[in-house]
Write a structure and sequence with these properties.
Length: 355
């Protein structure tokens, strides 16, 4: 089998962060989501992986390279236009050939990986396998309707009135029958070739499509709240370790990772949390479900349930920062200039809460 990872898209729901960074490269528990997807595919025994890229191709290529760090071979596929998931598959035909393959959206996190799914599909004579999970608001996703025997009846992309709460997780497995399906579908009302329409074609034409219902957690990291949820869930499952320096005046409790070169000085760290390489936490409090990325400084401040990206600094902030996603090279500090006032320079679509 081969792997196909979709890593295009503009990430508009994460603006302004994704104006300057590919959404798949935003880290969860200090590891980019895209890296977690590649590892999940590698752990399932697949070493030939195609990565579909769009406008952020150069950044993705620089971060991922040719896959040497994971022991896989990466082939990049430039999608000509962002015209839907089935369109991305169509433009990957040369790489995929007639091999079976797994398609994984590059901004998804799933508990437990995909090794059992790949093994199951590999032993079967199914033409396709889709992964479903129950969600509270299915209208935001592709939705599957099953009959009383658990067989797929209908698939609809983001229906206004969903007929079930089973959403399609961004993981699909196909054989060569998918090429026939894609050749026969038309663009949807969104102007895109929908993968749900291609799967519906397979169902209606007698192909064997197996629905697997995932029981663990799954996160589509498309929004700030989703990123924070994924960060929380992954932090709880990490094998925690202390590789950096923690001085005798600091308290580190719970599941805490301090990566190599990081320094914790006269501070309190309560896990689950992770402090990245060469980060410094001085006279500060870092609370549960917080990920501090590499080369970041937290001084005389408090923060919890947040993600802070690389090369940022938070210094002398009088109130605790919570529920926040803070980008790269950000400086948050108290200004000595009088009169006292909030002085802000914010990107488009920013969301700031001030006491």
């Amino acid at each position: 089998m081969k792997g196909l990872v979709l890593s295009g898209g503009k990430g508009t729901r994460l603006y302004p962060l994704t104006y300057t960074k590919a959404k798949q490269l935003i880290p969860v528990a200090n590891k980019p989501v895209l890296f977690r997807v590649i590892e999940a595919i590698r752990d399932a025994g697949i070493t030939e992986i195609g990565v579909v890229v769009g406008d952020t191709a150069s950044e993705v290529k620089e971060a991922v390279g040719r896959g040497k760090r994971w022991g896989v071979n990466i082939t990049y596929i430039q999608q000509s236009t962002p015209s839907g998931l089935a369109h991305a598959v169509k433009e990957s035909r040369e790489f995929l050939g007639d091999d079976r393959f797994v398609m994984f959206l590059g901004d998804n996190c799933i508990q437990g990986g995909i090794s059992p799914l790949i093994e199951q599909f590999g032993r079967s004579d199914w033409n396709a396998q889709i992964v479903l999970t129950r969600v509270p608001d299915p209208s935001q996703f592709g939705v599957a309707e099953l009959d009383d025997e658990g067989r797929i009846v209908r698939l609809v992309e983001k229906p206004k009135e969903p007929r079930s709460n089973l959403a399609l997780v961004g993981i699909y497995m196909f054989d060569q029958s998918i090429w026939e399906a894609i050749a026969h579908i038309k663009p949807s009302w969104r102007g895109e070739l929908e993968i749900t329409d291609a799967i519906q074609y397979l169902v209606e034409h007698g192909y064997r499509v197996f629905p697997y219902i995932h029981r663990g957690w799954w996160i589509d990291t498309g929004k700030r709240s989703d990123m924070l949820d994924a960060n929380r869930l992954v932090l709880e499952e990490l094998e925690h370790r202390i590789d950096g320096f923690v001085d005798k005046d600091s308290q580190v409790t719970g599941k805490v990772t301090v990566e190599q070169g990081a320094e914790i000085i006269n501070s309190v760290i309560r896990g689950p949390a992770i402090i990245g390489e060469h980060a410094r936490v001085v006279n500060s409090y870092v609370g549960p479900f917080t990920a501090i990325y590499h080369h970041t400084e937290i001084e005389d401040s408090e923060i919890e349930h947040s993600i802070v990206l690389e090369n940022s600094s938070i210094v002398s902030i009088p109130h605790r920062i919570e529920d926040s996603l803070i980008g790269r090279n950000v400086k948050i500090h108290r200004s000595p200039i009088k009169p006292k006032a909030y002085k802000l320079m914010l990107g488009d679509n920013s969301d700031v809460g001030i006491l």
